[in-house]
Design brief:
The protein has 498 residues and is an alpha/beta fold. The protein has helices spanning 40-59, 62-78, 80-91, 95-112, 115-118, 154-165, 180-191, 206-214, 227-239, 262-274, 292-308, 327-343, 378-381, 397-406, 420-429, 465-471, 488-493; strands at residues 2-4, 6-8, 11-13, 20-25, 30-36, 122-128, 131-139, 142-146, 169-173, 199-201, 218-224, 243-247, 253-256, 286-289, 346-349, 368-371, 388-391, 409-410, 412-416, 434-437, 453-454, 457-458, 473-481. It folds into two domains: 2-248 and 456-478, Aldehyde Dehydrogenase, Chain A, domain 1, CATH 3.40.605.10; 253-437, Aldehyde Dehydrogenase, Chain A, domain 2. The structure holds nicotinamide-adenine-dinucleotide.
Length: 498
């Protein structure tokens, strides 16, 4: 059985705690590897190495740090196939989705290649008589990132791409469910010329997370995962005096106005609801058709499309989605489907009995469609994170704006319409952090910033872009006045005509 080790100070390090986690192949249901789970002592050793390395890295000029990022991007691109296959084999998403996972992370690395520009600071000449004021952004020191299973390449790169480029060293605690690609990223960073100790990968569970939150030398923690844990990480990390950003769960709505281009809309919703088996924080698990005519037409088209969905193993290039990540997660999804039935929603398509021939023990689940879901139902209020689409019928635009606005989550939302005025008003009023107008998954490009509202994000700094630069640096402002007149010493060094 393969053992997945930590990657600390530029080398693989075997686990010392004696605790290991199972890493499954979701296609077969078999355990394919064991991952070491770190304790506080192992985390402490990594932090020591990171703190030592950070001093020299912070003193390295930003264009040299950017060159390492540039080479890292080149190496990851060169190994795209190897990394995407490895990612799929532990996560279960199809290889095309794994490539997308890596590609979206690389876009943040591209942003990091321009870090000298982002770090230029500000300058005011003559803020007072003979007084100049300038501010600079300095790295924090050792910082940490704790990431979820669903984007094991993109989300680590969101965090360490910016954090390292600005001069910090980084402890990555990836999800213990699919930890291999994060380790490969650490190795490739070294190969790209990154110094040992700048990007460390320490595997673990709650024990390791708690050690990160309490460690006095870790200055900031960036977290992405489910909301209850995000809230816990935010509260615990800030109580230890750390800067914390903690992104949580989601329940994104698609609003379908009567004038929407229904062909395009259905195509977009199918991809956003069922792609990656619904295991995306920017998935669209709720569709809100406005008016009964829209609802009937949408339901009919969705049923046609669902019939043609192809589910397969993650290496099957023709499959639209693969298995979910673990048997426990599959069980959670099927429990929610049963709850939806018990709550009185109409289960129009039931994917619970789906079996893939030859892979009966894999964690597969077919597509599911609920109609007549009501806002008071738990299955509407909570995140399911599986291939389950819920139709919540609205009578008016006002009702449609209110649904995502009142929901506990506020990550993403999309409106499908041909009416620019309705779209504009929707974008202005809806209480959600990321809005798509005829765009189903409005993940901002790397040089903008990613972040939701309400229980989808704790703390006030978004991921990547200039928000990321601000999160991973502290501002120092210098107010300077120089003595008037030339001293004899300066007259000596300034050449004159005499
Ligand atoms: P998770 O909350 O179970 O795990 C996230 C991280 O927290 C992992 O590294 C895990 O090891 C650690 N962890 C787990 N239990 C812990 C505990 N009790 N105490 C401390 N740490 C703990 O999330 P997941 O299942 O890996 O990922 C899916 C979730 O992440 C979904 O809720 C999804 O919406 C969310 N997500 C959010 C975003 C976003 O940007 N808002 C992006 C991707 C995923």
């Amino acid at each position: 059985m393969r053992d997945i080790q930590h990657f600390v100070n530029g080398a693989a390090v075997a686990g010392q705690s004696g605790r290991f986690g199972d890493v499954f192949d979701p296609n077969t249901g078999e355990v394919q590897a064991h991952v070491a789970l770190a304790d506080a002592g192992e985390l402490g050793t990594a932090v020591q190495a990171a703190a030592r390395a950070q001093i020299g890295w912070a003193a390295t000029n930003p264009q040299r740090r950017a060159r390492v990022m540039f080479e890292f991007k080149r190496l990851v691109e060169a190994r795209m196939d190897e990394l995407a296959n490895l990612l799929s084999s532990e996560h279960g998403k199809v290889v095309a989705d794994s490539r997308g996972d890596i590609q979206r992370g690389l876009e943040v690395i591209e942003f990091a290649c321009g870090i000298p520009h982002a770090l230029k600071g500000e300058y005011t000449e003559g803020a007072g008589p003979g007084i100049d004021v300038y501010s600079m952004r300095q790295p924090l020191g050792v910082v940490a990132g704790i990431t979820p299973f669903n984007f094991p390449a993109m989300i680590p790169m969101w965090m360490f791409g910016v954090a390292i480029a600005v001069g910090n060293s980084f402890i990555l605690k990836p999800s213990e469910k699919d930890p291999s690609v994060p380790v490969r990223l650490g190795e490739l960073f070294m190969e790209a010329g990154g110094p040992a100790g700048i990007l460390n990968v320490v595997h673990g569970d709650k024990v390791c997370v708690d050690a990160i939150l309490a460690h006095p030398d870790i200055r900031a923690v960036s977290f992405v995962g489910s909301s209850d844990i995000a809230q816990y990480v935010y509260a615990t990390g800030t109580s230890h005096g750390k800067r914390v950003q903690a992104m949580g769960g989601a329940k994104n709505h698609a609003i379908i106005m009567p004038d929407a281009d229904l062909d395009q809309t259905v195509n977009d919703i199918m991809g956003a609801a069922y792609g990656s088996a619904g295991e995306r924080c920017m998935a669209l698990p709720v569709a809100v058709p406005v008016g009964s005519k829209t609802a009937e037409a949408l339901r009919e088209r969705l049923l046609d499309e669902i019939e043609t969905l192809k589910i397969g193993v993650s290496s099957d290039a023709a499959a639209q989605y693969g298995p979910v990540v673990t048997a426990a997660h599959r069980q959670k999804i099927t429990d929610y489907i049963q709850l939806g039935v018990d709550e009185g929603a109409e289960l129009v398509v039931d994917g619970r009995d789906f079996k893939l021939q030859g892979f009966e023990a894999g964690f597969f689940i077919g597509p599911n469609l609920f109609d007549h879901v009501k806002p008071e139902m738990r299955t509407y209020q909570e995140e399911i994170f599986g291939p389950v689409l819920q139709l919540v019928r609205a009578e008016s635009f006002e009702e449609a704006v209110a649904l995502p606005s009142k929901h506990q989550y506020g990550n993403g939302v999309a409106i499908f319409t041909r009416n620019g005025r309705a779209a504009r008003e929707f974008a202005a009023r809806v209480e959600v952090g990321m809005v798509g107008i005829n765009v189903p998954i409005p993940v901002p490009v790397a040089y903008h910033s990613f972040g939701g509202w309400k229980r989808s994000a704790f703390g006030d700094a978004n991921q990547h872009g200039m928000e990321g630069v601000r999160f991973f640096t502290k501002v120092k402002t210098v107010t300077a006045r120089w003595p008037e007149g030339m001293s004899e010493d300066s007259a000596f060094v300034i050449p004159t005509m005499q």
